[in-house]
Amino acid sequence: MLSIDLSSSAIAATASRQGLKIPILIDGRPVMPPGVVIGPAGEIYVGLDTTTAMSLPVDHRFIDNPTDLLGRPISAADEAQPDPVDLLATVLRHVTHHAAVHVNGPITALTVTIPPSWGPRRCGHISEAAARAGFPPPALVTAPAALAAYATMLGVTMSDGSCVLVCQADREPATLTVLQTAADGFRELATQQISLAHGLNHLIAQHVVQAATADSDPLQATITAAGSNEADVERALLESVRTARQLLTTQDKAPILLPVPRQPAVITRDDVTAAVQPLLDQIPRAVGGILDAADIDTTHLAQVVLRPALGVTALAETLAAATGTTPTLIDHTHALADGALPLTIVQEAGAAADARLPRVRLRVSDLTGALLLGACSLILLLQAVLTAYISTYSTWVVGVRTSLPQLGTAGALVMLTALAVAHLAPTTLLAGTPTASTPEPTTGSLIRRGYLTTVVGGIITAALYGLATGTAVEYDYTPYLKWTLGAALPLAACAALIAATAPRIPADALPAWLVMTRPAVTHAITATAGIYLMRAALTLSTPISTNTIAPIAGSIGAALVGIATALTISRSRTIRAITAPGLAVGYALVFTADTTSALIVGYLIALTWWGIRLTAHTLRLAFPQPGTALRRLADRTGG
Question: What CA–CA distances, in Å, run from 18 to 290, 348, 524?
């Protein structure tokens, strides 16, 4: 799903992929100017602003924004008149091309943010432009609804049935809209445009010229005349004003270049406020009018959301005075594209709870990873038991010394073995095929069953490890049970959370999620080999038989544990390339009988972190809008 904002002063796009929002860079820029240039041979260039258009050859035609032409009648006799739908289709193709490159995959669905004043005619033009660009009809979201949805993503609370006033002033004319929240989004109650005789840039230019030039200067008459901004000189002045407004967002003063031979003028935010007073004066009356049209008053307003005009800081204060509510300012470039996605994301593929991935019959080769992990677990358990130093008095065992962290690792690897088996559940079947009486279960159901079985089976086996160790050494099993269960329980808790939330994962994100949940067998084997060598070096057991090679073998084992720890704790190749050699050398240097337990505990922590990271990734996919989900849960429990 790709969300494109066509209602702001610049085009922004955000892709939704596997529950994550990805802002799209268009031609290397966060946003793209909406300007389009038509060459003499009919070629179309997109993404140009007014400044660039001023340097174009005279046989090139510049259109500030193709969406402004939508809905206007096209004269068949005027061959020079462009088709705005063709222009918009070119813009859509350009944006979707960059989005496909950015997410490394095709764009199959579009969401487009439009002004609230658009009706069926211009909405139909958007669908036609999408069809010409090779896409199905897009989901259309009005700009006020997208802004309100983005405000909820910022933590603004809006209960069902409450009213919200949205002011979008970044694109002229400024628009006021009253929305009412509903279970499926927002319902528009009223909308109204605030029209001015001239644009804000023109008002500021007129104010600057009057303050910086003499009364007899012909520039005053020129800038005051209606339509004078079509001249090249006036267009350059207006572009300088726009640049100054941008600078005033971060500094107190900004220069404006006046036509030669005049000296540049300097403006402040107070100058902008004085220049745009015609807009500010209309705000109280416009607010009162739209509240009447929506049949509400200021007491019904739960929130006020403002998309501010560039450099006009006084607009927020004026709006707050007119409504009695401090507005929430939203000036993020991708706010509307991001906000539109939650309102249309339901149109994407369903969740894992409803999906059915293809399944194949289980083969012995599919169990290789699980069998190897189980073997590693048993090897560590047997070595810890067989190399235990048992102190006896007469026929009574009075003390046992063995590696408790190694027993903990054996318990953790048991849980990892169970996770490897659970990973096979959604995509394999033991035998037979589903029939009408036994329908094919959903992937979400298989994931839940598999991971819940993992929790139960892993905990029971880890507990049996502790009990078996106590029985084998004929001593109290309590310390062994604490370690085998203690190392397995964090992974069991992660598996339980995954079982509860994984069915909510979007169906299109399941393949990548399944790849990520596959336990890394190589890392576990590396850790097992390292732990085994360290224990063998300390106890002179198989395959170490002499004190000569014991330190070398122990250091090699410690290095292997360090490598396994680095590989387990991160999926980043860069981090692995940096940390693996460092931990290998460091572990090898510090290896002694006193540090062995600490080195093994470090690997256990890394294994636990792997489970936490996997669980966090699952939660992000299952709940892409955590704030909204938590608020709905709170409202439900509170009711």
Answer: 40, 10, 28
Omega of the bond prior to 261 within 30 degrees of 0, cis? Answer: yes
Distance CA 63, CA 257 (A): 24
Beta-bridge partners for 306: 167, 329
- Tell which residue, 73, 258, 294, 76, has the closest CA to residue 176: 294
> For the segment 374-400, what is each residue's pLDDT rounded down to a tens digit?
999 999 999 999 999 999 988 889 899
Local structure of 209: helix, strand or coil: helix
Nearest in space to 95 (alpha carbons), one of 66, 73, 54 = 66
Phi, psi of 168 (to 5 degrees): -105, 105
Q: How far is CA 567 from the centre of its chain?
A: 25
192-201, 315-324, 590-599: range with lowest mean pLDDT:
192-201
- pLDDT higher than threshold 90 for residue 435: no
Which residues fall within 8 angstroms of residue 139, CB to CB, at 6 or more apart?
A: 109, 110, 111, 112, 344, 347
Q: Do residues 138 and 112 make contact, with C-beta atoms less than 8 angstroms apart?
A: yes
Reported confidence tier of residue 637, pLDDT bands at 50, 70, 90 = very low
The torsion angles phi and psi of 175, rounded to 5 degrees, stand at -130, 135
Q: How far is CA 151 from the centre of its chain?
A: 16
What are the DSSP calls for 418-478, one per residue? HHHHHHHTTTEESSS---SSSPPPPHHHHHHHHHHHHHHHHHHHHHHHHHHHHHHHTS--H
The Cβ of residue 374 has, within 10 Å, a number of other Cβ atoms equal to 19
Can you spell out the DSSP letters for 43-92? -EEEEE-HHHHTTS-TTSEEES-GGGGTTSPPPTT-TTS--HHHHHHHHH
**Eight-state DSSP code of residue 351:** B
**Residue 18 pLDDT:** 63
Task: State the pLDDT at residue 8.
Answer: 86
List the structure tokens of 306.
């403002």
Task: Name 265's bridge partners.
Answer: 256
Other Cβ atoms within 10 Å of 478 Cβ, number: 9
68: number of Cβ within 10 Å: 11
Average pLDDT of the chain to the nearest whole number: 85
Q: CA 2, CA 26: separation in Å to the nearest integer? A: 13
Percent helix, strand and coil across the chain, each to the nearest 5:
55, 15, 30
> Of 9-13, 423-427, 454-458, 471-475, which range is least confident?
423-427
Tell me the HSE value of 269 on the side-chain side, using a 13 A CA sphere. Answer: 14
Residues 73-100: b if buried by 16+ CB within 10 A, e if exposed: eeeeeeeeebebbbbbbbbbbbbbebbb
629 pLDDT above the threshold of 80: no
pLDDT-based confidence at residue 630 (cuts at 50, 70, 90): very low
Query: How far apart, in Å, are the Cα atoms of 175 and each of 193, 274, 347?
Result: 4, 21, 28
Task: Please give the structure tokens belonging to residue 562.
Answer: 């360090």
What is the spatial order of strands in the sheet that 20-23 belongs to?
20-23, 12-17, 2-5, 110-114, 139-142
Listed in sequence order, the residues at least 6 apart from 556 whose beta carbon sits closer than 8 Å to its beta carbon are 530, 533, 588
Pairing status of strand 185-194 against strand 174-182: antiparallel
Distance of CA 267 to CAs 59, 76, 235, 261, Å? 36, 47, 18, 19
Q: Is the pTM of this model over 0.70?
A: no
